[in-house]
Structure formats: C-alpha cells, structure tokens
Amino acid sequence: MTEIDWQVVLAGAALFGILAAAIAMLFAGLRAARAARQLTADHARLEAMLAAAPALAVVVGADGRIAPPERLTGWLGLTDRPRYLSELGTSETGLSDDDLATLIHETSAAQKSGRGFDQAVHAHGSDRTLMIRGMRAPAGVDGSGSALLWFFDATEMRAEAEQAEAEAARLREAFEALTGLIEAAPLPMWYRGPDLRLAMVNSAYVRAVEGNDAEDVVARGIELVEGAGLGGPLAGAAKARDTGEPHEQAMPATIDGARRMLRIHDIPLPIGGVAGFAVDIDELDQTRTRMRRLGEAQRTMLDRLSAGVAQFTPERTLAFCNLPFRRLFAMRNEWLADKPEFDRVLERMREANRVPEVRDFPRWKAERRAWFNADEDTIEEHWHLPGGTHLRMLAQPLPDGGLLLVFEDRTEEVQLASARDTLLRVRTATFDNLFEALGVFAADGRLQLWNNRFREVWGFEHDFLAAHPRVDALAEMAAPSLSNPARASLIGELVRAATVERQQRSGRVGFADGRHFEFAAVPLPDGNALFTMLDISDSRRIEQALRERAEALEAADRVKTAFVANMSYELRTPLTSISGFAEMLHGGYAGPLSKEVDSYVAAILDSTAKLGVLIDDVLGLTQQAATAPDLARGTVDLAQVARTAAEALVPFARERAIDFAIEIDPSAGKIEGDARRLQQGIEHMLRHAIAGTPERGRVLLHTDGNDQTARIVVSDNGPGMSREAIGHAFDRPAADSRAPADRGLGLGLPLARQIVEAHGGTVKLISEPGEGTLIVAELTR
C-alpha cells in the first residue's frame, strides 16, 4: 500500500476517531442534560416539599449566618429577612430576648458538640408557639461547624397537647376515684383478662376468699365461688366475653364460714377483658321468702275479715280480692281470674245492683277512676244500695300508683243504731215517767241527767238543774227540804262511794213534810253513778204498824211461855201425888192386890212416868223459846255420860224387843260441858230412835272423837223419814208417819239440838224412806 493510501487510511482513522469522540461527547452531553433536568426536577420537588412541610429548615453557619425562608419571617413577625441568627429577635419583634439567648447558646453547643436540643419559643405580640429542634448539620449541607434548625408551628399541637394533658389529668383523677370506689366497695369486685384469668381484685374480694392481699389472690388465682369449671363463674365470664352481653347467675359460696347465696354479674369490656362483681342475695332471698309468706298470711287474714278488700295495680287491673268482697258483690272466681280492669269491676258491681243509684254512671265511674291519682290519704264514702244495704267504702291510693278498696257492710250497724235511737227515746220517756226519782252524776260529781220526779221531789228550778250543778251544791240546795238538814251530806257520800269507790250504798232520809225516802247510789259501767230516791212513806207506816204488832206478839208469847211454865209446875204436883200413891199401892202398903189390880197400878205408874217426861220436854221447849239453857260447866267424861244415858233406856228398848247395841270408843274422851244436860240430849236422841223403830229392830249408840271434836252417833234400821219430815224434825213437834202412838209429840230432837248447840256443837239428821235414820251430834272440845 502506498503512502497516500496510508495517509488516506490514517486520515480516515483520525476522522473516525474524531467522529467517535464527537458521538461520545454527544451522548455524555445528553446524559448531563438529563441529569440536570432530573436535578432541576428534584430541586423543584424538594423546594415544593419544603414549602409545604410543617417544619422550616434553617442552616446556621459557623459564623452565625442564616438564610431563613420567608414563612419563618412571617411566623416571627419580622419586617426584614434576617441574615444572622442573632437577628431573629429585636426588642419589639421576633423572639424574646430570653428565648433568643437560649437559642443562640443551644445552637452553639450543637455546632461544637453535636448535641441536639428541643426548645419552645414565642414571638413578640403573637400567640403562636414555635418548637425548635436543633442538631449538627449533616455533611454536605454546608461547611463544617454548621447547625441545622427545624422550626415547627406547634400552636395547634400545643393546644391539643394541653387539652390532652388536661383530659389525661381528668381521666387520671377519674381512674383514681374509680379505683378508690372499687377498692372501698363492700361488694367483691374483680377484673379478668381476655384469657379469663384474674388480673385485679378489690379488698372485699380478698376478705371474702380470706387471702393475704390482692397480689397474692391474683397470683394464686383464688376464685370467689368454688368449682370454677364449666358450670362455675368462668362459664359465665366466658359467655359474657363471647356474646358481648352482660351475664348474671346465682351461685352459692362460703364467706366467713357461712354458706351464702351470691348473684354473680359478668360484664364484657371493650378492651377484651371481663369485669365482675358479686351481690349477696341470701338476705334478699330470705326477705323475699318472708315477704311472700307475709303476703300469703295477709291474704289469709284478709279472707277472714268481714270487710271486703280489693287491691288494684298501677295499671288499674285487679291484683287481689278477698272472699267477703266476692260474696258482697256476687263475683265468680272464674271471672276474677282474668284480672279485670277497674272499670269492668265497677260495671259488674252495677250489674249486681251493688252500687248507689246515680244518673250519670260514666261520670261517676270516671270520678272513682281518678282515685288512682288522688292526693288525699284516704277517701271515704257511704253507699246506700237498693234494698236497704249500707256500705262504708274506704279508698286508699298506694305509693306505687295502685289503689286499695275496703268495703264494710254497715247495714246491721245502721239498723242497730236506729234501734238504739228508738231505745234511747223509749228510755228517755220511761226515765221521765218513772215514779222513782232518778239522777245520773258524772265521775266529777256533776249532775248529768235527771227525770221529772227528781225535780218535783226537791222542788228545784229547771235552770238550776240545766246548769249541771255539782253534788255538793245540789246537797246544799236540798238541805232545807229535810227534817234534819245535816243529812243532806248523805247525797254527796253516796255519789262519791259509787263514782270513786265503785260501791253501792244506800240510806234513808226523812223530809220536813213527813215523807220518807230511801236514797241509793249505784255505780254504772261508764264510771258514772245512778242516784235513786224511792218514796217509802207508806212502807214506813206499814213497817211501824208491823213493828208494833210484833211487839204485841212478843208480849203475848212471853205470857204464853209463862203460862206454859206455870202449868208445867202446877201439873207436876198432882202428878207426883198420883205417882206416889200408885207406888204405895204397888208396894203393898194398902194390902195385897189382885193381879188385875196390880196390873192397873203398873199401868198408872208407867203413864205417870211418861207424863213426867212429856212435862219436862214441854218445859224445856218453853225455856228454849225464852232464854238459852243454863249450863253447869265442868269436865265431862263423854263415854261415861253416854253409857249412863244408854242404861236408862235399856228397859224401854227391852219392852219393844229392840236389839240395842252400845259402842263406846275411848277416843270420845272428855269435853267441857254440863254432864246432866248432855245425858238428857243423848237420851232424847235414843228415845227418838227407839220410838221410831219397829219391834225386833236394831238401834246403835256409837261414840268416838279426835283432837278437835267428839262425836255421838245414834242410828236405827226403822222405816226412815221423808224429806219433808226431815226438814221439820228439829223445829216443830210434828207427827211423823213412821212414829208409833207412844212416841208422844216428838219433842226429843228439838230438845237434843238445843242442848248440843248450847255446848257449841251441831246436830245432823240423815234419813231415807225405808233406809233407817242416822243422827250425828258433834261437840267441840
């Protein structure tokens, strides 16, 4: 190849090289243009971001030079854009002197040591709050020794922060108060986490489970209710957590050694846990049981009342009515079981003709419906029903808005009141027309009532009595009418005795005009006294006549007694002569007598003996009527006296073929008395028994005694005595149907009683027809 060719080749290579370099430079320029455009776009974006950023960046050079954004000048209220950090505040604009000095100091420290800081500053005359965060400027931002300051407008953030702090303080106080309330609550309370494990308990919970403290209880997971399984408190807590609804259940627990019934409440919380508390319902259940029993007892009691009772609920439906209410208004149990409304009950009462007759029944019913909201404590009405029935109705609004009605049937009471008024009028008419003078004095001694006879007897003026004078004033006015004015005090004494002492007393008073009255005061049940005046003038005269007649009869009786006594003595003289001559003839002084004559003489002696006894009995009865018998008292051996009396009557008993038995017990002992009289008394009782006993009968004399008394018993097995004969055996010589003719006048028993009673003893006669007779005499030692 030629030199020219090599030159051409070299020239072509050089041209290719230049072209290649130009192309490379072109591509490099294009890349640089793209990079410049990217940088310009990034710069514009960064400037836009800085302009829109809530924070403004200020670079502080080592010499304090700054290039702040325009917004910062506006935030600080500066008119000129500052060039140095010290120009951020003046005496009137920008930062305050203290804030600026602190900022310069903290910025210098950040430039030297790289320590960051935060500072809140305020501008003069502005409410704006700026937050400055300072740090050493990153490498590449500016020369070494620079600082980067970020300015934040924290005005709104500060207000929100202050509000948040205030809200936090309020919530903290509320939380502390709530915590204190929960801690002081007497109810066991707790909190479970989402896993249902105990996270917090109060002091009441700790005391209930007898734990040491809340931390110990939570750490050990001590449950309040035993058996924390599927049916325990965890089941309720799980249900509340899963459903998001509160759950409650009643469960037993042992607290302080006692079995209690608790109502467990589980409440789901938004944070996922479950809060709970327990209420002791043991006493509540007992109270409900007692209230239920009380209600049942009250209803039972109301059913037994005579008054009808009906109770309505606040919704005006019938809640309860007793049996008298159903009977009174003729209501069937089937209809009442539907709990009828108040208006329907009134309508049914009207249908039964058991409400008063009214013209406008709807209005009348509306007025009664208003009782549910009445202000009165109790509303009372009197219902006069057709047929003469009278009802007393009481309506009592109840505190819960219900109504209680009570119906009392006053028909009988009204009838009784009418009858009482009639009786009072009859009594008043009778009181005023009685012949007896009557006056009623109150407990204070004042005259309350009087009749016409009372006023006429005393001659009192009506005005004087109408003033209801006291008994003392009335007695003073009555004194001149009496024959003895001092006797007027008897009125006051009688009234006081009846009102104060509650005793009935009486007395007699003569009037000045010759009349006589019997006064009497009778205590009345109401505390008053009834004073009566009965005119006894006629009975007084009759009494005087009877007294004079009695005195005349007593004088005649004394004459009769003296006559009988004299006759007894006069008869004894010829009787003694007859007896003496008969004994001489019987003794043979006049010569021997034939058997026939001798029997005649024996009959004369026997008759004279009986006549002597009869005269002695008559004389004894006569002396009894006059005076008590004279006793020659001394120590008497009763056994010896009884034996002597029995021996004296042995012949008499032998004549009648009587089996005469004698039983003398040593216990009869001795007594103080007249031996002769006691012997006569025993003989009279024996003679009465022997005379009343048929032939071949039996008579017994028995004596015994004790430390206080001695007893004499005479019995026979004769025909006995009738009740009428027993009643008169001791007081009159009446013939007895069982006595034979030789029993005489029957004076033995009266004489025996006279002798025994004179010794302070008693005589009893016991007999039945056909059963014999028993005479018992008891003598006191």
From TrEMBL:
It comes from Hephaestia caeni. It holds the Pfam family HisKA. The keyword Phosphoprotein applies. It catalyses: ATP + protein L-histidine = ADP + protein N-phospho-L-histidine. GO terms for molecular function: phosphorelay sensor kinase activity. Keywords: Coiled coil, Kinase, Membrane, Phosphoprotein, Transferase, Transmembrane, Transmembrane helix, Two-component regulatory system. The chain crosses the membrane at residues 6-30. Gene3D superfamilies: 1.10.287.130, Histidine kinase-like ATPase, C-terminal domain, PAS domain. PANTHER family: HISTIDINE KINASE 1, TWO-COMPONENT HISTIDINE KINASE. Its EC number is 2.7.13.3. Residues 566-781 form the Histidine kinase domain. Residues 154-181 form a coiled coil. SUPFAM superfamilies: ATPase domain of HSP90 chaperone/DNA topoisomerase II/histidine kinase, Homodimeric domain of signal transducing histidine kinase, PYP-like sensor domain (PAS domain). Signal peptide: none annotated. This is histidine kinase.
